[in-house]
């Protein structure tokens, strides 16, 4: 679905130039970035085809948004500056909700997991986008904005702005930004935490542009100097094949449903790793086990203070 | 799909190829070192904290490792310069197919179906039981 000013399309040359810049500067030791050829190929291939795979559902979601806009509660003018301020906050809060659901409920995790499947964290990782987001239906979360009265084109543009913003924070090259910026905005440091698989960092920092939502809703975690992020999944993938990356969790859901259909609701809407007997790892169980280990074996600085 | 969209897709595909080529050039000669015992033990400690390692076998090509912890086999397998870790039953590891110096471990996971280890012999006489 084309919109008058698609920020992602406009930013594509910037994406390409900055990935090239990060690779070359890292090669000559001018900044911190780790690239691996097959990993990069997978990320970029996923990015290339993600726009195509989204097309079938883009029409449905836009039609739904248009219908709701036709029955809107208010009329919000696209030409007013205050309306853009309002849609910025409304869209960013919607993104927080979407992103949290995408990590905490398996059906949406199945669509989002590919973005976290790289064991690297560089600008190409940002482009490792979903092929099944439309199928998972999370786009419905943005529909209330059109019902409120934001023109669907306005919502789409703001979604694009958010996506472009989130591109540059996928880097290890920027360590910390000024305190005031880190306090308000999502930054490379905050998002490194989000991509980490260390139990302490799991399911944290869901923000799109503003980190304030995580601070408000109790999901914020600072990146700690003493614990470097380890990137990837709790159970990393053993393949670079984009098809396996895109569909492995869907296949897992299908296999679980066949194995035990009476637990369908849990398999589909439970947290990733949920199982009827609790034998698998969830973020909550991993965090609890980690916390228990901290109590049994406190860190050296705590031992010295005791 | 319009002609303009096709052109945009083709140009993007060419850019992807160029960036992958650049990454290959930039990382040439900088591959991950072969897995050794110290690295394997560090990864096992990260992945399976608290697991007691009773035996550890490192693949001759440094691309994987297998550890025994009670009735569990802890598997590490290289993927690019990262790795995959899985826990399977020791019995499944002990009875896994071993042919031409390759141990093929079934991981029963669509995301990582198998792990291969180059070993001189399998199963080990003293720990296989």
Question: How would you describe this protein?
Answer:
The complex is a heterodimer of chains A (306) and B (129). Helix content of chain A is 59%, strand content 0%. With 306 residues, chain A is mainly α. The N and C termini of chain A lie far apart (61 Å). Chain A has one domain. The model of chain A has no long low-confidence stretch (mean pLDDT 94). Chain B has 129 residues and is an alpha+beta fold. In chain B, 31% of the residues lie in helices and 30% in strands. Chain B has helices at residues 3-26, 37-47, 90-94, and strands at residues 55-58, 64-69, 72-79, 82-89, 97-99, 102-106, 114-118. In chain B, the strands form 2 sheets. A 4-stranded antiparallel sheet of chain B has the order 1-2-3-4. A 3-stranded antiparallel sheet of chain B has the order 5-6-7, with no helix packed on it. Chain B is elongated. The model of chain B has no long low-confidence stretch (mean pLDDT 92). Chain A binds chain B through residues 9, 12, 16, 19-20, 23-24, 26-27, 34-41, 44-45, 47-48, 52, 119-120, 124, 230, 232, 235-240, 244, 248-249, 251-252, 255, 289-290, 293, and chain B through 8-9, 12-13, 15-16, 18-20, 22-27, 46, 49-50, 77, 79-86, 107, 109-115.
Distinctive features:
heterodimer, A: 306 residues, mainly alpha, B: 129 residues, three-stranded antiparallel β-sheet
Blueprint (SSEs and pairs):
The complex is a heterodimer of chains A (306) and B (129).
Chain A: H1 7-27, H2 37-70, H3 81-104, H4 106-112, H5 123-126, H6 133-136, H7 143-148, H8 152-167, H9 179-184, H10 188-195, H11 212-217, H12 242-259, H13 264-269, H14 283-296, H15 300-305
Helix pairs in contact in A: 1-8, 3-4, 3-8, 4-12
Chain B: H1 3-26, H2 37-47, E1 55-58, E2 64-69, E3 72-79, E4 82-89, H3 90-94, E5 97-99, E6 102-106, E7 114-118
Antiparallel strand pairs in B: 1-2, 2-3, 3-4, 5-6, 6-7
């Amino acid at each position: 679905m084309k919109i008058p000013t698609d920020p992602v399309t406009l930013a594509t040359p910037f994406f390409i130039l900055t990935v090239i810049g990060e690779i070359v500067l890292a090669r000559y030791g001018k900044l911190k970035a780790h690239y691996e050829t097959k990993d990069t190929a997978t990320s970029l291939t996923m990015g290339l085809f993600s726009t195509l795979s989204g097309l079938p559902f883009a029409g449905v979601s836009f039609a739904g948004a248009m219908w709701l806009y036709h029955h809107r509660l208010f009329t919000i003018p696209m030409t007013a500056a205050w309306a853009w301020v309002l849609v910025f906050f409304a869209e960013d809060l919607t993104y927080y909700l979407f992103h949290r659901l995408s990590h905490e409920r398996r059906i949406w995790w199945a669509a989002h997991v590919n973005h976290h499947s790289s064991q690297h964290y560089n600008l190409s990782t940002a482009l490792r986008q979903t092929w099944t987001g439309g199928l998972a239906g999370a786009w419905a979360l943005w529909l209330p904005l059109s019902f409120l009265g934001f023109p669907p084109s306005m919502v789409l543009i703001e979604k694009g702005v958010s996506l472009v913003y989130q591109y540059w924070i996928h880097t290890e090259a920027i360590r910390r930004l000024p305190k005031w910026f880190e306090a308000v905005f999502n930054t490379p440091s905050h998002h490194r935490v989000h991509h980490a698989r260390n139990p302490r960092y799991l399911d944290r920092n869901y923000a799109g542009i503003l980190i304030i939502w995580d601070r408000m809703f109790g999901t914020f975690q600072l990146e700690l100097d003493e614990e470097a992020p380890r990137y990837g999944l709790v159970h990393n993938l053993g393949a670079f094949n984009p098809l396996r990356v895109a569909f492995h969790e869907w296949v897992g859901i299908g296999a679980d449903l066949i194995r035990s259909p009476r637990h369908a609701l849990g398999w589909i809407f439970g947290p990733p790793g949920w199982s009827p007997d609790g034998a698998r790892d969830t973020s909550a169980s991993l965090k609890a086990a980690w916390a228990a280990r901290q109590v049994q074996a406190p860190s050296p600085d705590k031992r010295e203070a005791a | 799909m319009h002609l303009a969209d096709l052109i945009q897709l083709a140009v993007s595909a060419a850019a992807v190829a160029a960036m992958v080529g650049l990454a290959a050039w930039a990382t040439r000669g900088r591959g991950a070192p072969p897995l050794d015992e110290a690295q394997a033990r560090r990864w096992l400690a990260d992945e399976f904290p608290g697991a007691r390692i009773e035996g550890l076998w490192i693949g001759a090509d440094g691309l994987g490792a297998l550890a025994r912890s009670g009735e569990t086999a802890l598997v590490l397998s290289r993927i690019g310069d990262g790795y995959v870790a899985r826990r399977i039953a020791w019995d499944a590891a002990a009875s896994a197919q071993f042919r031409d110096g390759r141990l093929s471990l079934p991981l029963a996971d669509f995301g990582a179906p198998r792990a291969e280890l180059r070993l001189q012999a399998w199963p080990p006489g003293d720990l296989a039981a």
